[in-house]
Amino acid sequence: xxxxxxxxxxxxxxxxxxxxxxxxxxxxxxxxxxxxxxxxxxxxxxxxxxxxxxxxxxxxxxxxxxxxxxxxxxxxxxxxxxxxxxxxxxxxxxxxxxxxxxxxxxxxxxxxxxxxxxxxxxxxxxxxxxxxxxxxxxxxxxxxxxxxxxxxxxxxxxxxxxxxxxxxxxxxxxxxxxxxxxxxxxxxxxxxxxxxxxxxxxxxxxxxxxxxxxxxxxxxxxxxxxxxxxxxxxxxxxxxxxxxxxxxxxx
Length: 251
Known about the structure:
Residues 152-246 form the Phosphoribosyltransferase domain. This protein is α/β, with parallel strands linked by helices. It has ten helices and eight strands. It has helices at 2-19, 37-44, 73-77, 96-103, 110-124, 141-147, 151-163, 186-193, 204-207, 223-234, and strands at 22-23, 30-31, 84-90, 133-136, 172-174, 197-199, 211-219, 239-247. The strands form three sheets. A four-stranded parallel sheet has the order 3-8-7-4. It has a two-stranded antiparallel sheet with strand order 1-2.
């Protein structure tokens, strides 16, 4: 009896995307993808030259030097704790609506699309080495309870499958809750996240000498990711690369 019921049930599950069509998060066109092919080509396919370290667009890009991908003046003058950043796009309209839709609109179907965009950006940065593992910037306990999910983890899981590396969603932990960075002036954000992150129990041996990839939805000033990278380096990580869907522009 169970076998006779199983086949029609599976057929029904496969038909759900047709019975309940989704729509493009930007243009509203009906379809089975969170972002339609036309919007994806228009908004995400045109890569801009970026600083290999902080992923800000380069105002006057030049060819890569023999020592590796180009860095902006700020990263050359004061190198952050992380070694590289890969970003799929800038945090500008209309792509900012994708971030807001995932984080506050619970549109979890956007996370795999963001992961695929990051995969493409990583493949374009062919001179940057792939990480040994991926982890996600952790949310504080209160914010995680309110939201019900960590958007960085939702992006990290499919991205890890794309890159062929393990995803360790519990590798990083918050040692204390912090204020939302977006609510603070830029000059207070570094102090807000200082000593706010640590490793899960028993993880130190895992990252010693490893290249760790850190996933987040948006990189604004980079203070949070810099603090995470500094903590990982203290525990012996050899390299830290950020994978962020969107990069906020200065100003």
